[in-house]
Batch of 2 targets.
Target 1
Amino acid sequence: MTCNFLALARPNLQGLSPYVPGKPIEELARELDLNPADIVKLASNENPLGPSPKVLTAIEKELPELTRYPDGNGFILKQKLAEHYGVEPEQVTLGNGSNDILDLVAQAWLAPGLNAVFSQYAFAVYPIATTIAGAECRVVPAKDYGHDLEAMLQEIDENTRVVFVANPNNPTGTWFDVTSLEQFLAAVPEHVIVVLDEAYIEYAASSELPDGMKYLANYPNLIVTRTFSKAYGLAGLRVGYSISSAQIADVINRIREPFNVNSLALVAACAALEDEDYLFRSRQANEQGMEQLELGLNALGLRWINSKGNFIAVDFQQDASAINQALLERGVIVRPVAGYGMPNFLRVSIGTHEENARFLTVLKQILSDG
Ligand SMILES: Cc1ncc(COP(=O)(O)O)c(C=O)c1O
Protein backbone atom coordinates (compact mmCIF):
# COMPACT_ATOMS: atom_id res chain seq x y z
CA MET A 1 0.00 0.00 0.00
CA THR A 2 1.46 3.33 -1.01
CA CYS A 3 -0.97 5.81 0.35
CA ASN A 4 -2.97 6.03 3.58
CA PHE A 5 -6.25 7.42 2.34
CA LEU A 6 -7.74 7.50 5.82
CA ALA A 7 -4.92 9.83 6.89
CA LEU A 8 -5.74 12.02 3.88
CA ALA A 9 -9.43 12.25 4.79
CA ARG A 10 -10.75 15.26 6.73
CA PRO A 11 -9.30 15.32 10.29
CA ASN A 12 -12.72 14.90 11.92
CA LEU A 13 -13.24 11.58 10.10
CA GLN A 14 -10.10 9.93 11.54
CA GLY A 15 -11.76 8.59 14.70
CA LEU A 16 -15.12 7.82 13.11
CA SER A 17 -16.41 4.23 13.20
CA PRO A 18 -19.01 3.11 10.66
CA TYR A 19 -22.60 2.56 11.80
CA VAL A 20 -23.05 -1.12 12.66
CA PRO A 21 -26.41 -2.41 11.35
CA GLY A 22 -28.16 -5.58 12.48
CA LYS A 23 -26.55 -8.68 10.99
CA PRO A 24 -28.36 -9.69 7.78
CA ILE A 25 -29.89 -13.21 7.73
CA GLU A 26 -27.89 -14.18 4.62
CA GLU A 27 -24.62 -13.15 6.29
CA LEU A 28 -25.21 -15.32 9.36
CA ALA A 29 -26.32 -18.19 7.11
CA ARG A 30 -23.02 -17.93 5.17
CA GLU A 31 -20.87 -17.58 8.28
CA LEU A 32 -22.34 -20.49 10.22
CA ASP A 33 -23.58 -22.59 7.32
CA LEU A 34 -27.20 -22.31 8.50
CA ASN A 35 -30.37 -22.47 6.44
CA PRO A 36 -31.63 -18.87 6.05
CA ALA A 37 -35.19 -20.13 6.53
CA ASP A 38 -34.26 -21.29 10.04
CA ILE A 39 -32.87 -17.93 11.10
CA VAL A 40 -34.87 -15.41 13.09
CA LYS A 41 -33.80 -11.77 12.87
CA LEU A 42 -34.87 -9.50 15.70
CA ALA A 43 -32.04 -7.03 15.25
CA SER A 44 -33.15 -4.02 13.20
CA ASN A 45 -36.54 -2.95 14.55
CA GLU A 46 -38.20 -4.11 11.35
CA ASN A 47 -41.92 -4.69 11.01
CA PRO A 48 -42.66 -8.44 11.31
CA LEU A 49 -45.97 -8.17 9.38
CA GLY A 50 -44.29 -7.88 5.99
CA PRO A 51 -45.33 -5.09 3.61
CA SER A 52 -48.96 -4.08 3.18
CA PRO A 53 -50.58 -5.73 0.09
CA LYS A 54 -51.77 -2.25 -0.94
CA VAL A 55 -48.15 -1.11 -1.02
CA LEU A 56 -47.15 -4.08 -3.15
CA THR A 57 -49.91 -3.28 -5.65
CA ALA A 58 -48.77 0.35 -5.86
CA ILE A 59 -45.18 -0.75 -6.47
CA GLU A 60 -46.19 -3.20 -9.19
CA LYS A 61 -48.10 -0.45 -10.96
CA GLU A 62 -45.04 1.78 -10.89
CA LEU A 63 -42.56 -0.81 -12.21
CA PRO A 64 -42.97 0.02 -15.95
CA GLU A 65 -41.87 3.59 -15.15
CA LEU A 66 -38.49 2.55 -13.76
CA THR A 67 -36.57 4.02 -16.69
CA ARG A 68 -37.65 7.48 -15.56
CA TYR A 69 -36.21 9.55 -12.73
CA PRO A 70 -38.51 9.93 -9.76
CA ASP A 71 -40.33 13.20 -9.12
CA GLY A 72 -37.46 15.06 -7.45
CA ASN A 73 -39.91 17.15 -5.44
CA GLY A 74 -42.05 14.22 -4.34
CA PHE A 75 -45.10 16.36 -5.12
CA ILE A 76 -47.83 13.79 -4.44
CA LEU A 77 -46.32 12.36 -1.27
CA LYS A 78 -45.70 15.86 0.09
CA GLN A 79 -49.31 16.79 -0.66
CA LYS A 80 -50.56 13.69 1.13
CA LEU A 81 -48.34 14.23 4.16
CA ALA A 82 -49.31 17.90 4.33
CA GLU A 83 -52.98 16.95 4.26
CA HIS A 84 -52.43 14.21 6.84
CA TYR A 85 -50.87 16.65 9.32
CA GLY A 86 -52.74 19.83 8.39
CA VAL A 87 -49.58 21.68 7.28
CA GLU A 88 -48.40 23.23 4.00
CA PRO A 89 -46.48 21.06 1.48
CA GLU A 90 -43.60 23.60 1.78
CA GLN A 91 -43.10 22.39 5.36
CA VAL A 92 -42.47 18.81 4.27
CA THR A 93 -39.01 17.43 3.45
CA LEU A 94 -38.60 13.91 2.10
CA GLY A 95 -35.57 11.77 2.85
CA ASN A 96 -33.95 8.51 1.84
CA GLY A 97 -35.09 7.25 5.23
CA SER A 98 -35.35 9.73 8.09
CA ASN A 99 -31.63 9.05 8.53
CA ASP A 100 -31.09 11.16 5.41
CA ILE A 101 -32.85 14.10 7.05
CA LEU A 102 -30.75 13.77 10.22
CA ASP A 103 -27.61 13.91 8.04
CA LEU A 104 -28.91 16.87 6.05
CA VAL A 105 -29.68 18.84 9.21
CA ALA A 106 -26.12 18.23 10.43
CA GLN A 107 -24.67 19.25 7.06
CA ALA A 108 -26.78 22.38 6.92
CA TRP A 109 -26.26 23.74 10.42
CA LEU A 110 -23.15 22.11 11.93
CA ALA A 111 -19.48 22.88 11.22
CA PRO A 112 -16.17 23.09 13.12
CA GLY A 113 -16.50 25.45 16.08
CA LEU A 114 -20.21 24.61 16.49
CA ASN A 115 -21.81 21.84 18.53
CA ALA A 116 -24.80 19.51 18.72
CA VAL A 117 -26.31 18.40 22.02
CA PHE A 118 -27.77 14.93 22.49
CA SER A 119 -28.15 12.30 25.18
CA GLN A 120 -25.95 9.41 26.20
CA TYR A 121 -27.46 6.20 24.72
CA ALA A 122 -29.22 8.23 21.99
CA PHE A 123 -29.55 6.97 18.41
CA ALA A 124 -26.09 6.31 16.89
CA VAL A 125 -26.63 8.50 13.85
CA TYR A 126 -26.54 11.73 15.92
CA PRO A 127 -22.82 11.42 16.82
CA ILE A 128 -21.97 10.15 13.32
CA ALA A 129 -23.73 13.03 11.54
CA THR A 130 -22.29 15.60 13.97
CA THR A 131 -18.75 14.26 13.62
CA ILE A 132 -18.92 14.16 9.82
CA ALA A 133 -19.94 17.83 9.88
CA GLY A 134 -16.81 18.55 11.97
CA ALA A 135 -18.83 19.80 14.94
CA GLU A 136 -18.48 18.94 18.63
CA CYS A 137 -20.71 16.21 20.11
CA ARG A 138 -22.04 17.35 23.49
CA VAL A 139 -23.20 14.10 25.05
CA VAL A 140 -25.35 14.62 28.14
CA PRO A 141 -25.45 11.78 30.74
CA ALA A 142 -28.76 9.92 30.61
CA LYS A 143 -31.18 9.67 33.53
CA ASP A 144 -32.49 6.11 34.02
CA TYR A 145 -31.31 5.42 30.43
CA GLY A 146 -33.58 8.19 29.10
CA HIS A 147 -32.94 11.78 28.02
CA ASP A 148 -32.30 14.23 30.88
CA LEU A 149 -33.87 17.19 29.13
CA GLU A 150 -33.03 19.66 31.91
CA ALA A 151 -29.36 18.69 31.83
CA MET A 152 -29.42 18.93 28.02
CA LEU A 153 -30.63 22.53 28.28
CA GLN A 154 -27.63 23.34 30.47
CA GLU A 155 -25.26 22.16 27.73
CA ILE A 156 -26.63 24.54 25.12
CA ASP A 157 -24.46 27.59 24.46
CA GLU A 158 -24.05 30.22 21.74
CA ASN A 159 -22.23 27.68 19.54
CA THR A 160 -25.00 25.10 19.73
CA ARG A 161 -26.93 24.84 16.49
CA VAL A 162 -28.77 21.53 16.88
CA VAL A 163 -30.28 19.46 19.70
CA PHE A 164 -31.27 15.92 18.79
CA VAL A 165 -33.99 14.28 20.92
CA ALA A 166 -35.61 10.94 20.16
CA ASN A 167 -39.06 10.13 21.50
CA PRO A 168 -39.09 7.19 22.01
CA ASN A 169 -35.34 6.71 21.92
CA ASN A 170 -33.49 3.86 20.25
CA PRO A 171 -31.89 1.63 21.62
CA THR A 172 -33.38 2.23 25.07
CA GLY A 173 -37.09 2.65 24.19
CA THR A 174 -37.32 5.43 26.81
CA TRP A 175 -39.64 8.40 26.30
CA PHE A 176 -40.63 11.75 27.72
CA ASP A 177 -44.09 13.17 28.35
CA VAL A 178 -46.01 16.23 27.16
CA THR A 179 -45.00 18.48 30.07
CA SER A 180 -41.30 17.64 29.71
CA LEU A 181 -41.36 18.38 25.98
CA GLU A 182 -43.29 21.62 26.44
CA GLN A 183 -40.89 22.87 29.11
CA PHE A 184 -37.93 21.88 26.96
CA LEU A 185 -39.17 23.60 23.80
CA ALA A 186 -40.00 26.76 25.72
CA ALA A 187 -36.48 26.89 27.18
CA VAL A 188 -34.40 26.12 24.05
CA PRO A 189 -32.98 29.36 22.60
CA GLU A 190 -34.52 30.26 19.25
CA HIS A 191 -31.21 29.97 17.34
CA VAL A 192 -31.01 26.25 18.19
CA ILE A 193 -32.76 23.74 15.95
CA VAL A 194 -34.60 21.03 17.87
CA VAL A 195 -34.70 17.76 15.93
CA LEU A 196 -37.51 15.75 17.48
CA ASP A 197 -36.95 12.26 16.12
CA GLU A 198 -40.26 10.37 16.22
CA ALA A 199 -39.23 7.28 14.22
CA TYR A 200 -41.28 5.01 16.54
CA ILE A 201 -44.10 7.37 17.54
CA GLU A 202 -46.82 5.40 15.73
CA TYR A 203 -46.30 2.52 18.14
CA ALA A 204 -47.22 4.57 21.20
CA ALA A 205 -50.85 5.14 22.17
CA SER A 206 -51.69 8.77 21.42
CA SER A 207 -52.20 9.71 25.06
CA GLU A 208 -48.82 8.39 26.17
CA LEU A 209 -46.39 10.52 24.19
CA PRO A 210 -46.53 14.11 22.98
CA ASP A 211 -47.28 14.59 19.30
CA GLY A 212 -44.43 16.76 18.03
CA MET A 213 -46.55 18.03 15.13
CA LYS A 214 -48.67 20.06 17.58
CA TYR A 215 -45.76 22.32 18.44
CA LEU A 216 -44.66 23.30 14.94
CA ALA A 217 -46.87 26.37 14.77
CA ASN A 218 -45.27 27.85 17.89
CA TYR A 219 -41.67 26.80 17.32
CA PRO A 220 -40.08 27.75 13.98
CA ASN A 221 -36.85 26.08 15.22
CA LEU A 222 -38.53 22.63 15.52
CA ILE A 223 -38.09 19.79 13.02
CA VAL A 224 -40.13 16.64 13.58
CA THR A 225 -38.73 13.61 11.75
CA ARG A 226 -40.75 10.47 11.06
CA THR A 227 -40.31 7.39 8.91
CA PHE A 228 -42.08 4.74 6.85
CA SER A 229 -39.45 2.19 7.97
CA LYS A 230 -41.03 1.04 11.22
CA ALA A 231 -44.79 0.95 11.82
CA TYR A 232 -45.48 1.30 8.07
CA GLY A 233 -43.16 -1.62 7.29
CA LEU A 234 -41.09 -0.10 4.46
CA ALA A 235 -37.53 -0.20 5.84
CA GLY A 236 -36.12 -1.68 2.63
CA LEU A 237 -37.38 1.18 0.47
CA ARG A 238 -35.81 3.97 2.55
CA VAL A 239 -38.34 6.73 2.89
CA GLY A 240 -38.72 9.16 5.76
CA TYR A 241 -39.69 12.80 6.14
CA SER A 242 -39.65 15.85 8.32
CA ILE A 243 -42.17 18.56 9.00
CA SER A 244 -40.78 21.93 10.02
CA SER A 245 -41.15 25.61 9.28
CA ALA A 246 -41.04 26.29 5.53
CA GLN A 247 -37.79 28.21 6.04
CA ILE A 248 -36.01 25.22 7.59
CA ALA A 249 -37.38 22.95 4.84
CA ASP A 250 -36.06 25.39 2.23
CA VAL A 251 -32.52 25.24 3.67
CA ILE A 252 -32.53 21.43 3.69
CA ASN A 253 -33.90 21.38 0.16
CA ARG A 254 -30.87 23.34 -1.06
CA ILE A 255 -28.43 20.59 -0.04
CA ARG A 256 -30.40 17.39 -0.52
CA GLU A 257 -29.59 15.16 -3.48
CA PRO A 258 -31.90 15.95 -6.42
CA PHE A 259 -33.55 12.49 -6.41
CA ASN A 260 -33.02 11.36 -2.83
CA VAL A 261 -36.25 9.34 -2.67
CA ASN A 262 -36.73 6.72 -5.38
CA SER A 263 -39.91 6.30 -7.40
CA LEU A 264 -40.98 2.98 -5.82
CA ALA A 265 -40.52 4.46 -2.36
CA LEU A 266 -42.65 7.48 -3.29
CA VAL A 267 -45.64 5.45 -4.48
CA ALA A 268 -45.24 2.93 -1.66
CA ALA A 269 -45.26 5.65 0.99
CA CYS A 270 -48.42 7.19 -0.51
CA ALA A 271 -50.17 3.81 -0.37
CA ALA A 272 -48.85 3.09 3.14
CA LEU A 273 -50.10 6.39 4.51
CA GLU A 274 -53.61 5.53 3.37
CA ASP A 275 -53.55 2.00 4.74
CA GLU A 276 -54.86 2.68 8.23
CA ASP A 277 -55.73 -0.95 8.76
CA TYR A 278 -52.08 -1.97 8.34
CA LEU A 279 -50.98 0.64 10.86
CA PHE A 280 -53.59 -0.60 13.31
CA ARG A 281 -52.38 -4.19 12.88
CA SER A 282 -48.74 -3.08 13.29
CA ARG A 283 -49.56 -1.44 16.59
CA GLN A 284 -51.62 -4.34 17.79
CA ALA A 285 -48.97 -6.95 16.87
CA ASN A 286 -46.34 -4.83 18.58
CA GLU A 287 -48.33 -4.52 21.80
CA GLN A 288 -48.98 -8.25 21.88
CA GLY A 289 -45.35 -9.08 21.05
CA MET A 290 -44.05 -6.69 23.69
CA GLU A 291 -46.27 -8.31 26.30
CA GLN A 292 -45.14 -11.78 25.20
CA LEU A 293 -41.48 -10.80 25.52
CA GLU A 294 -41.96 -9.06 28.85
CA LEU A 295 -43.76 -12.07 30.30
CA GLY A 296 -41.11 -14.43 28.92
CA LEU A 297 -38.21 -12.32 30.18
CA ASN A 298 -39.88 -12.06 33.56
CA ALA A 299 -40.18 -15.83 33.73
CA LEU A 300 -36.44 -16.06 33.04
CA GLY A 301 -35.74 -13.61 35.88
CA LEU A 302 -34.34 -11.00 33.51
CA ARG A 303 -34.71 -7.22 33.63
CA TRP A 304 -35.33 -4.83 30.77
CA ILE A 305 -35.90 -1.15 30.12
CA ASN A 306 -39.58 -0.27 29.63
CA SER A 307 -39.99 0.61 25.97
CA LYS A 308 -42.51 2.47 23.81
CA GLY A 309 -40.79 1.33 20.59
CA ASN A 310 -40.90 -1.95 18.66
CA PHE A 311 -37.91 -3.30 20.58
CA ILE A 312 -36.78 -3.93 24.12
CA ALA A 313 -33.32 -3.62 25.70
CA VAL A 314 -32.68 -6.61 27.96
CA ASP A 315 -30.26 -6.26 30.86
CA PHE A 316 -28.20 -9.43 31.46
CA GLN A 317 -26.27 -7.75 34.31
CA GLN A 318 -23.06 -9.15 32.86
CA ASP A 319 -21.27 -8.73 29.55
CA ALA A 320 -23.86 -9.95 27.04
CA SER A 321 -21.47 -10.79 24.18
CA ALA A 322 -21.27 -14.52 24.99
CA ILE A 323 -25.09 -14.72 25.11
CA ASN A 324 -25.27 -12.86 21.81
CA GLN A 325 -22.82 -15.32 20.26
CA ALA A 326 -24.77 -18.29 21.61
CA LEU A 327 -27.98 -16.84 20.15
CA LEU A 328 -26.29 -16.41 16.76
CA GLU A 329 -25.07 -20.01 16.79
CA ARG A 330 -28.67 -21.10 17.33
CA GLY A 331 -29.91 -18.91 14.45
CA VAL A 332 -31.29 -15.96 16.43
CA ILE A 333 -30.01 -12.49 15.54
CA VAL A 334 -30.52 -9.70 18.08
CA ARG A 335 -28.59 -6.46 18.43
CA PRO A 336 -25.62 -6.06 20.77
CA VAL A 337 -25.47 -2.48 22.05
CA ALA A 338 -21.95 -2.39 23.53
CA GLY A 339 -21.20 0.31 20.93
CA TYR A 340 -23.74 2.47 22.74
CA GLY A 341 -21.91 1.93 26.06
CA MET A 342 -24.44 -0.75 27.11
CA PRO A 343 -22.31 -3.95 27.07
CA ASN A 344 -24.65 -5.80 29.45
CA PHE A 345 -27.69 -5.31 27.22
CA LEU A 346 -29.02 -6.88 24.04
CA ARG A 347 -31.72 -5.06 22.08
CA VAL A 348 -34.45 -7.36 20.82
CA SER A 349 -36.92 -6.22 18.16
CA ILE A 350 -40.52 -7.36 18.52
CA GLY A 351 -41.13 -10.12 15.97
CA THR A 352 -44.07 -12.36 15.13
CA HIS A 353 -45.49 -14.52 17.91
CA GLU A 354 -43.42 -17.47 16.61
CA GLU A 355 -40.20 -15.46 16.32
CA ASN A 356 -40.58 -14.07 19.84
CA ALA A 357 -41.29 -17.58 21.15
CA ARG A 358 -38.20 -18.95 19.38
CA PHE A 359 -36.03 -16.23 20.92
CA LEU A 360 -37.38 -16.95 24.41
CA THR A 361 -36.95 -20.71 24.05
CA VAL A 362 -33.39 -20.41 22.75
CA LEU A 363 -32.50 -17.86 25.43
CA LYS A 364 -33.86 -20.16 28.13
CA GLN A 365 -31.66 -23.01 26.83
CA ILE A 366 -28.58 -20.76 26.76
CA LEU A 367 -29.16 -19.45 30.28
CA SER A 368 -29.77 -22.92 31.69
CA ASP A 369 -26.62 -24.27 29.94
CA GLY A 370 -24.83 -21.52 31.90
C1 LIG B 1 -34.41 6.77 16.60
C2 LIG B 1 -34.25 6.53 15.15
N1 LIG B 1 -34.30 7.56 14.30
C3 LIG B 1 -34.15 7.42 12.98
C4 LIG B 1 -33.92 6.17 12.44
C5 LIG B 1 -33.71 6.08 10.96
O1 LIG B 1 -34.63 5.28 10.34
P1 LIG B 1 -34.89 5.37 8.77
O2 LIG B 1 -33.67 6.00 8.15
O3 LIG B 1 -35.09 3.98 8.35
O4 LIG B 1 -36.09 6.24 8.61
C6 LIG B 1 -33.86 5.05 13.26
C7 LIG B 1 -33.59 3.71 12.68
O5 LIG B 1 -33.35 2.76 13.31
C8 LIG B 1 -34.02 5.23 14.64
O6 LIG B 1 -33.94 4.20 15.48
Note: The pocket of pyridoxal-5'-phosphate is lined by residues 45, 97-99, 123, 166, 170, 197, 199, 227, 229, 235, 240 (CB under 6 Å).
Target 2
Amino acid sequence: MSILDDVVINAKSAAEAVGRKAGQLVDVSKLRISAAEINAEIAKRYEVLGQYVYECSRSTLSADPEAAGQMTEIDELKAQQAAIAKELGDKQNKVFCPVCGKQSPTSATFCSACGAKLMPDPEPVPQEAGPDDAREAAEADGPDVQNSDIPPRQFP
Ligand SMILES: [Zn+2]
Protein backbone atom coordinates (compact mmCIF):
# COMPACT_ATOMS: atom_id res chain seq x y z
CA MET A 1 0.00 0.00 0.00
CA SER A 2 1.46 3.33 -1.04
CA ILE A 3 1.59 6.49 0.98
CA LEU A 4 -1.01 8.00 -1.33
CA ASP A 5 -3.46 5.18 -0.53
CA ASP A 6 -2.98 5.81 3.18
CA VAL A 7 -3.74 9.49 2.74
CA VAL A 8 -6.87 8.77 0.76
CA ILE A 9 -8.14 6.27 3.34
CA ASN A 10 -7.41 8.61 6.24
CA ALA A 11 -9.18 11.48 4.52
CA LYS A 12 -12.12 9.22 3.77
CA SER A 13 -12.55 8.04 7.36
CA ALA A 14 -12.17 11.60 8.62
CA ALA A 15 -14.90 12.75 6.26
CA GLU A 16 -17.13 9.87 7.36
CA ALA A 17 -16.57 10.73 11.00
CA VAL A 18 -17.49 14.35 10.37
CA GLY A 19 -20.54 13.23 8.39
CA ARG A 20 -21.72 10.98 11.25
CA LYS A 21 -21.27 13.75 13.77
CA ALA A 22 -23.12 16.27 11.60
CA GLY A 23 -25.90 13.76 11.09
CA GLN A 24 -26.37 13.50 14.85
CA LEU A 25 -26.32 17.25 15.39
CA VAL A 26 -28.39 18.53 12.50
CA ASP A 27 -32.11 18.09 12.93
CA VAL A 28 -33.85 16.40 10.01
CA SER A 29 -36.52 19.07 10.04
CA LYS A 30 -33.86 21.74 9.61
CA LEU A 31 -32.55 19.90 6.58
CA ARG A 32 -36.06 19.71 5.21
CA ILE A 33 -36.52 23.46 5.73
CA SER A 34 -33.22 24.12 3.99
CA ALA A 35 -34.25 21.92 1.08
CA ALA A 36 -37.61 23.69 0.84
CA GLU A 37 -35.93 27.08 0.94
CA ILE A 38 -33.52 26.09 -1.79
CA ASN A 39 -36.36 24.68 -3.89
CA ALA A 40 -38.28 27.93 -3.47
CA GLU A 41 -35.20 29.89 -4.45
CA ILE A 42 -34.71 27.74 -7.54
CA ALA A 43 -38.36 28.20 -8.50
CA LYS A 44 -37.99 31.96 -8.03
CA ARG A 45 -34.89 32.04 -10.22
CA TYR A 46 -36.65 30.00 -12.90
CA GLU A 47 -39.55 32.42 -12.73
CA VAL A 48 -37.33 35.48 -13.11
CA LEU A 49 -35.39 33.84 -15.91
CA GLY A 50 -38.57 32.67 -17.62
CA GLN A 51 -40.11 36.14 -17.47
CA TYR A 52 -36.91 37.64 -18.85
CA VAL A 53 -36.82 35.16 -21.72
CA TYR A 54 -40.54 35.66 -22.33
CA GLU A 55 -40.07 39.40 -22.63
CA CYS A 56 -36.79 39.40 -24.57
CA SER A 57 -37.03 36.45 -26.92
CA ARG A 58 -40.64 36.18 -28.00
CA SER A 59 -39.88 36.14 -31.72
CA THR A 60 -37.15 33.52 -31.36
CA LEU A 61 -39.14 31.35 -28.95
CA SER A 62 -42.35 31.40 -30.97
CA ALA A 63 -40.62 29.12 -33.50
CA ASP A 64 -40.54 26.42 -30.83
CA PRO A 65 -43.96 24.74 -30.41
CA GLU A 66 -43.53 24.04 -26.68
CA ALA A 67 -42.41 27.59 -25.95
CA ALA A 68 -45.11 29.05 -28.18
CA GLY A 69 -47.75 27.05 -26.31
CA GLN A 70 -46.48 28.29 -22.96
CA MET A 71 -46.42 31.87 -24.21
CA THR A 72 -49.99 31.57 -25.47
CA GLU A 73 -51.04 30.32 -22.02
CA ILE A 74 -49.28 33.27 -20.39
CA ASP A 75 -50.86 35.71 -22.84
CA GLU A 76 -54.32 34.33 -22.10
CA LEU A 77 -53.71 34.51 -18.34
CA LYS A 78 -52.44 38.06 -18.72
CA ALA A 79 -55.60 38.97 -20.61
CA GLN A 80 -57.67 37.48 -17.77
CA GLN A 81 -55.53 39.32 -15.23
CA ALA A 82 -56.03 42.61 -17.07
CA ALA A 83 -59.78 42.02 -17.29
CA ILE A 84 -60.02 41.26 -13.56
CA ALA A 85 -57.88 44.28 -12.68
CA LYS A 86 -60.03 46.51 -14.88
CA GLU A 87 -63.21 45.14 -13.36
CA LEU A 88 -61.84 45.78 -9.87
CA GLY A 89 -60.75 49.25 -10.92
CA ASP A 90 -64.15 50.05 -12.39
CA LYS A 91 -65.84 48.99 -9.17
CA GLN A 92 -63.54 51.12 -7.05
CA ASN A 93 -62.99 54.06 -9.40
CA LYS A 94 -59.34 53.07 -9.40
CA VAL A 95 -56.93 51.97 -12.08
CA PHE A 96 -54.51 49.14 -11.45
CA CYS A 97 -50.89 49.32 -12.55
CA PRO A 98 -50.27 46.62 -15.17
CA VAL A 99 -46.68 46.28 -13.94
CA CYS A 100 -46.75 46.32 -10.14
CA GLY A 101 -50.48 46.04 -9.43
CA LYS A 102 -50.73 49.15 -7.25
CA GLN A 103 -53.95 51.15 -7.38
CA SER A 104 -54.04 54.71 -8.59
CA PRO A 105 -56.93 57.13 -9.13
CA THR A 106 -58.46 56.88 -12.60
CA SER A 107 -57.18 60.40 -13.26
CA ALA A 108 -53.54 59.27 -12.91
CA THR A 109 -51.50 58.78 -16.07
CA PHE A 110 -48.55 57.07 -14.44
CA CYS A 111 -48.25 54.62 -11.53
CA SER A 112 -47.25 56.41 -8.34
CA ALA A 113 -45.35 53.32 -7.16
CA CYS A 114 -43.31 52.25 -10.17
CA GLY A 115 -43.89 54.98 -12.77
CA ALA A 116 -45.36 52.67 -15.41
CA LYS A 117 -47.83 54.16 -17.85
CA LEU A 118 -51.38 53.51 -16.77
CA MET A 119 -54.11 52.57 -19.19
CA PRO A 120 -57.43 53.67 -17.66
CA ASP A 121 -59.37 51.92 -20.43
CA PRO A 122 -57.27 49.11 -21.92
CA GLU A 123 -58.26 47.63 -25.26
CA PRO A 124 -60.56 44.70 -24.65
CA VAL A 125 -58.86 41.49 -25.71
CA PRO A 126 -61.07 39.45 -28.01
CA GLN A 127 -61.44 36.07 -26.40
CA GLU A 128 -64.10 33.40 -26.07
CA ALA A 129 -63.81 32.48 -22.42
CA GLY A 130 -61.38 33.99 -19.88
CA PRO A 131 -62.28 37.66 -19.36
CA ASP A 132 -66.02 37.14 -19.73
CA ASP A 133 -65.96 34.35 -17.18
CA ALA A 134 -63.91 36.50 -14.86
CA ARG A 135 -66.32 39.42 -15.30
CA GLU A 136 -69.35 37.24 -14.64
CA ALA A 137 -67.66 35.77 -11.57
CA ALA A 138 -66.83 39.25 -10.32
CA GLU A 139 -70.40 40.40 -10.87
CA ALA A 140 -71.73 37.30 -9.16
CA ASP A 141 -69.82 38.32 -6.05
CA GLY A 142 -72.05 41.38 -5.75
CA PRO A 143 -71.22 44.99 -4.97
CA ASP A 144 -70.77 44.60 -1.20
CA VAL A 145 -67.63 42.45 -1.49
CA GLN A 146 -64.60 44.28 -0.15
CA ASN A 147 -61.97 44.02 -2.84
CA SER A 148 -59.78 46.87 -1.71
CA ASP A 149 -57.13 44.80 0.03
CA ILE A 150 -56.96 42.03 -2.51
CA PRO A 151 -53.97 42.48 -4.82
CA PRO A 152 -54.29 41.45 -8.45
CA ARG A 153 -53.72 37.77 -8.83
CA GLN A 154 -50.06 36.91 -9.25
CA PHE A 155 -49.55 34.03 -11.58
CA PRO A 156 -46.53 32.03 -10.55
ZN1 LIG B 1 -46.76 50.30 -10.86
Note: Residues 79-140 form one domain.
